[in-house]
Amino acid sequence: MSIKSSFYLLCNNSFYSLIILYFLSGCTDSERLFTQLSSSHTGVKFQNILQETDEFNVLTYGYLYNGGGVAVGDINKDDLPDLYFTGNMVGSRLYLNKGDFKFEEIAKDAGVFAEGNWNTGTTMADVNGDGYLDIYVCRSAAVNPDRRRNLLFINNGDLTFTEMGNKYGVDDSGYTTQAAFFDYDNDGDLDLYILNHSTQEFAGLGKISKHNKKRKNKAYSDKLMKNENGKFIDVSDQVGLISNVLGFGLGIAISDLNNDGWLDIYISNDYNEQDYLYFNNGDGTFKESLEDYIGHVSLYSMGSDIADINNDGFTDIMTLDMLPEHNYRIKMTSGPDNFEKLSYLWKNGFYHQTMRNMLQLNQGGSYFSEIGQFSGISNTDWSWASLFTDFDNDGYKDLFITNGYKKDYTNMDFMNYVVQERINEKKNKKKINLSEVIKKMPSTIEENYTYKNNGDLTFTKVNKAWGLDQKTLSNGAAYVDLDNDGDMDLVVNNIEERASIYKNNSERLNKNNFIKIKLEGEGKNKFGIGAKVKVTSGGTTQIQELINTRGYQSSVDFNLNFGIGKSRIIDRVEVVWPNQKKQVITAVQPNQKLTLYQRDAKVNINREEISNNSLFQEVTPIDFLHKENNYNDFKREIMLPHMLSTLGPKLAVGDINGDGLEDVFIGGAKGSAGGIFIQSPSGGFYRSKKINLEADAASEDIGAVFFDADGDQDLDLYVVSGGNEFQKTDSSLKDRLYLNQGTGNFIKSKDNLPDNFSSGSIVKAADYDSDGDIDLFVGGRILPNEYPYAPQSFLLQNNGKGVFEDVTENIASGLKNIGMVSDALWTDFNGDSLKDLILVGEWMPITLFVNQNGKFKNISEEAGFRNTEGWWNVIEQADFDKDGDIDYVAGNFGLNSQLKTSVDFPIGIYAKDYDNNGSVDPILSCYDEGKNYPVFSKDDIQQQLTFLKKRFVKYNEYAGLTIEQVFTPKELEGAKVLYAKNFETSYIENLGNGEFKVSALPKQSQFSPIYGLSSGDFNKDGHIDILMGGNFTASRVKFGHYDAIKGICLLGDSSGQFKYLDASESGLMISGEVRDIKKLTSSDGDEYYVFVRNNDSPKIYKPNLN
């Protein structure tokens, strides 16, 4: 958490979510899932009261309002979970559960009041293995290290505790946020991870350096303490923990992420240091592997949780950040996109970070796809605790998030006020009155967020519908079944208000069934911490791990509660204990508490290596590296939604030397030549020396095709020049035709092409006029410095000798400036044996030109493509449903971004030279709560349009204004307005009557922009399947990277339905940004699929059918 350097925008909710909320929001209080209980009923009157002074305040201690935690556990073995709250400036409180949601406060009598110092996180665990839960309390803030010593209260078994932190060696004096007990080495006792944080000295941009990444301070560093016969020993260095002064640990989550039987660790870091992902090597050490498995992380990572959200048997990671949900709050906390900071971080060894919540979907233990925006849970404001549990017992884990901050120093108007006060201080030589400054600092008091898991990787916000819509300053939280009725209640530690207790009414309202699992371990791990439980019912298997430290500064119930919906029997319960022995119980009756004993587990887990039976296997790649030139589009065009200069390379495939083997052309970026690679009869590819591509290295190769231009029975090469780093009349934008001299020796033609300048995208070859020679369609992609105006596209007619004439206006009315074309296909959609033309592009609908005896007519609307405007990138054709006509699939922007669109609430762009300075000003817009707002911040829009600086001086004068309020009607007059109404990567079914049906492909296809498509019967089952590649990282800082896929395989069934294969099934592991996929036949007759990547080397896969 800090003054933000980046910002974001979440637009309207999906139609589906709105429908759900419409019905749910009509519930009365008595019908809501949760009821907030009064403190007069519960007796829980704890308040975490904070007092600021001139010496100690949020400006001198940035973590002042990070709040306290709550630990849950049955301290007296009466089967009723008790509660312990930590206070920062007040003593902590222990509440004994007396039943019926009534509690007795006993902290002082029990000896756990822990007053006088700054208490932070807390967790319960049976540290000494006597069967009673002990309490660990973390401390921070104080300058004196002795006042920061963590406390371990050992349970005496008689409702009293004795503090023994020093005796056990766990009285760490660092700046501790939280701690977690778990058995990292599977030796039967509990070890301890202590999560520490650095101080304000190292929070600023000026401290970002490679030097500080190696600089150490024990008070700031995390520690792993190994339990050696009841004494804890610091083994942090030996096991491989990262230790530096830049770590600001705010969250710890523990899970066996790769299902190898060893617990792994995820650490959330605030400020600039990236998060840490420690994979357990199984030999007493860990390997920090974040960059190998995760594409990007939260910037100001706070609380976290790990749970299996989609019941696939692998646990997923959630981290929280500070991005608000709605337009006004976003604008009030948003400065300019800070590209300089982003570049500086990257150059100094810091990883990709973006300010929003992140949901890392576990892809079979192979990698993680970040899908928080797709799931609808990325924007929850200044957030602290994230907790996954099944609140409604329907079999899917829902999500609860606490948030709020008492003094919001990220408010841009407040920041400007402070800057002005500093100026006045220097000018008048009068010291600032900090108390007055702090009084002017606004608060962020919002509802906590609750999301219902829809069971399809999306969540619906249900704050009000479930009765959790109170506005509070909430921090630590825990879920727990306080009344033993089989559903999870909530306990929340608030600042300056009494703690919240929410009773879950699921047992009364929806009557879903459940099973509660209690574990009885052996040896020194009496509660079975680290055990994994699998429950199978109704064809679904759920997993939970007994890791009680979760969320933020808190720990949850030790009993594992599984909702099973309406299932009347539990088919199977399996528990795998930390010693890797398992037990299985079948035919279990629901709605009971089932106790499982480690002593009954007799079967050893067999973790032999699984043989590789994936559909694809990687083969030897082509020795080529695409080198993207260093160009920042945003310096010239400030308001672009994304860069346009990283759209290559593309591929062309064909036998250029007549040896019967297919060869490959791969395009180059500006300043770096592409290449032709000849396939060798013995396998592999070598670079051809028979073409001089280096002479054209100044051009950017964006599209290419091998075809016989001059009718001499060999393949020539057409290369499309494109990119955004040129002036629109730059000679480097001229396309090139290389004529094959018969043996793969190419000479660049001089006069065969029209003298056209256009930054193009693709070239497609076909004999559209049936005269026996090959003609071309060349798509125009962009007008440099005039986004989003349409460039020229061309229909080039071949005279039979390889000389081409531009016949666009005569042959295809409306095609010349049809839009920002990204891809096209010559196709025969109606079976008349004439070549029709289908196009896709940015801000374009799917566009179909029918060939009417050599002339083309746009029939897109009649064909059913109305309202399909999107940010389309690629299109592929095949008869996917085996009905005898051609269908299509098209790659789009996807649904995993801040930009949400629909027909009723589309993304828009309003382009015009508003300030008459000779350049186009494209204003991106997005709907939020039914109103159309400019997407970008006050600083960004005023940098582009300086006349708006006088119109809006303060941020609050701009933050709530729609497009029509920011600009006058006269200013908007004449603006080019475009819309994008559909971002779904889609299947386009040919209905056979000249009409088409557009439907979304499986959800995994929507996680990233798709740029590469290919099709074929990969598994030889008689159905046409789909390969996809994509990702895009050259986006604005506020949007971050789109990098959630590593190759996708969808298996078809010849009915228009497609099944997604996960990474372990497909075998695809293609990181980076795929820009094209082409099929070729290898020298031994295998099907090869070549994936080319921007600024990276190609990868080749073949179906593994052995």
A few lines on this structure:
Helices cover 10% and strands 35% of the residues. With 1106 residues, it is mostly beta strands. The strands form 20 sheets. The protein has a five-stranded antiparallel β-sheet, with no helix packed on it. Strands 56, 57, 58, 59 and 60 form a five-stranded antiparallel β-sheet that branches.
Tag the structure with descriptive keywords.
single chain; five-stranded antiparallel beta sheet; mainly beta; 1106 residues
List the helices and strands and how they pair.
Elements: H1 15-24, E1 34-37, H2 39-42, E2 70-73, E3 82-85, E4 93-99, E5 102-105, H3 107-110, E6 118-125, E7 134-140, E8 151-155, E9 161-163, H4 165-168, E10 176-182, E11 191-196, H5 210-214, E12 223-228, E13 231-234, H6 236-239, E14 249-255, E15 264-269, E16 276-280, E17 286-288, H7 290-293, E18 297-298, E19 304-307, E20 316-319, H8 327-332, H9 339-347, E21 353-354, E22 358-362, E23 368-370, H10 372-375, E24 383-389, E25 398-403, H11 412-428, H12 434-439, E26 446-447, E27 449-453, E28 459-461, E29 471-472, E30 474-480, E31 489-494, E32 500-504, H13 506-509, E33 513-520, E34 532-537, E35 540-545, E36 549-550, E37 554-555, E38 560-565, E39 570-576, E40 581-588, E41 593-597, E42 603-604, E43 616-619, H14 633-636, E44 651-654, E45 663-666, E46 675-679, E47 685-687, E48 700-707, E49 716-722, E50 736-740, E51 746-748, E52 759-766, E53 775-782, E54 794-798, E55 804-806, H15 808-811, E56 820-827, E57 836-844, E58 847-852, E59 855-858, E60 870-871, E61 874-878, E62 887-891, E63 907-912, E64 921-928, E65 931-934, ...
Parallel strand pairs: 18-21, 33-41
Antiparallel strand pairs: 1-32, 2-3, 3-4, 4-5, 6-7, 7-8, 8-9, 10-11, 11-12, 12-13, 14-15, 15-16, 16-17, 19-20, 20-22, 22-23, 24-25, 25-27, 26-29, 27-28, 30-31, 31-32, 33-38, 34-35, 34-39, 36-37, 39-40, 40-42, 43-75, 44-45, 45-46, 46-47, 48-49, 49-50, 50-51, 52-53, 53-54, 54-55, 56-57, 57-58, ...
